[in-house]
Amino acid sequence: MSNKRDEEVLRIDFASLFRVLWNNALVIVLIALLSGAAAFTYTRLFVTPKYEAVASMYVNNSSFTFGATSFSISSSELQASNSLVDTYIYLLFSRTTLESVIADTGVDYDYQEMKGGIVKAEGVSNTAAFEVTVTSSSPQEAELIANSIARILPERISETVDGTSVRIVDYAIIPAKRSSPSYTKVVVISTVLAGMLACAVVALLSLVGDARLDILRSADDITEAYPRLHILAVIPDMSMPEKKGAYDYYSSYYGPGQSTTKTGKKKGGK
């Protein structure tokens, strides 16, 4: 029985909450749209767009030596191995390789900046191929650095790892579109988050308002909320205005003919 009551109260609360949100739907939608517009404006004016240029390479070898150690790898084993690609990526991010790229292109970056986010490399799954991605605020600069790596890295690998043959699959081209930021994502995410926040604020204010309505401020509130209860005593509020004294308010509970003045005489009596 109690479970049914709890479920009924819960449904009533959710229904009331839905009505509150529906009644404030226009305000919520307006806040969400304004937030999306503000996010778009900020991103368009103050966030620098980034461009990515990609060069891809493939390493083909059947045997090679690294230092004093010799290896022999079949074509199937080569495609399934990620450790070999990791070796080439390691050589890409070495100080000698990146400083050679900086000298070749004349860009105003140091080794740490190039390694820290401008240049990225990732192996292509189940192959001996990998892609080098260069990110820059200038599409021409991104293409310049990526193609410089495509020229310098094969020589660097051949000098370090004997018996390798590195081939360029694709040279980088000047990117026509920015890679970030995505204005669509910015607007959608900011609009949704602002709408959810507005709904939460409206719901919270509604709950606070309901809690205030549940506060019993006078004897009449108690009688109205709990008609079966009998009031045994009332503490007079001495801070009430003079137009209605505390004793008048206290005695009004017993009926209009029984109220007393501050002198103790009954109204209408001698």
Describe how the helices and strands are arranged.
Blueprint: H1 2-23, H2 25-46, E1 51-60, E2 63-66, E3 69-72, H3 75-80, H4 83-92, H5 95-105, H6 111-118, E4 119-123, E5 129-136, H7 139-160, E6 161-162, E7 165-170, H8 183-213, H9 219-225, H10 246-251
Helix pairs in contact: 2-8, 5-7
Kindly summarize this structure in a few lines.
The chain is of the alpha+beta class and 270 residues long. It has helices at residues 2-23, 25-46, 75-80, 83-92, 95-105, 111-118, 139-160, 183-213, 219-225, 246-251, and strands spanning 51-60, 63-66, 69-72, 119-123, 129-136, 161-162, 165-170. It is built from 10 helices and 7 strands.
Describe this structure in words.
With 270 residues, the chain is of the alpha+beta class. It has three domains: 2-46 and 182-213, no CATH class; 51-170, Alpha-Beta Plaits (2-Layer Sandwich), CATH 3.30.70.1130; 219-258, no CATH class. It has ten helices and seven strands. The chain has helices spanning 2-23, 25-46, 75-80, 83-92, 95-105, 111-118, 139-160, 183-213, 219-225, 246-251, and strands at 51-60, 63-66, 69-72, 119-123, 129-136, 161-162, 165-170. The strands form two sheets. It has a four-stranded antiparallel sheet. The longest helix is centred in the last third of the chain and has 31 residues, at 183-213.
